[in-house]
Amino acid sequence: MTAAPPELDGRAGWPAAEFTARLRAVTATRYHDLHPFNRRMHRGELTPAELRRWIAARFHYQRHIPVKDALILAGLDGPEERRTWLSRIHDQDGTDDAEGGIERWLRLGEAAGLAREELLDASRVPPGVRFAVEAYVTFCRRRPVLDAVAASLTELSAPDLMRTRIAAFERHYPWIEPAGLAYFRTRVTQGARDAEQALALVLARARTLEEQQRAVAALEFKCEVLWALLDAVDRSGP
Length: 238
Known about the structure:
With 238 residues, this protein is mainly α. The chain contains twelve helices and no strands.
């Protein structure tokens, strides 16, 4: 029996444009900017206590980003891929010449009235946030590197969220010192760069339909992690 040509093979993947559209559709419909807590934040409806609770909980997520990126780094092939991904760890942990995202988030907490010692000891982190963050790190540790990279593609929607958040904080929460918003400002450009790099890697690695479907599922999982994190924050206070 004559084998089916590749374009008719049921395992053949979607064309790159369709695959990209499917990935973008996930963040367009399931990203956490749609969560009620984020909507309330951007409308200026959070109390100072709620905002501080979110900052403290989100810091627990931020401090684990370099951990998941190190796990991804270990699974990448070749110096070029690793150099590209290594920049993410520098962005969060900082370098000898520049502070990183973790330090900028600590300064956001201080600008909102939280002591950095309180953020670092994680005493304000709800159990549900800990569970969501651990689920994400475990996913990146145990799943193929393609899946872990695809999960990071929530960054496709991050720059727009950062712009919205900056405007909301400036308008509705003027009691937070403007310097405390440095993390959000930096992530507008970093997030766009990271999304472009990760998307290129996913498009190059996910060639079969099964691989592409796994990538879409991984991105859906990451959206669920971010949603669960906000659920836990929203339910942990009065």
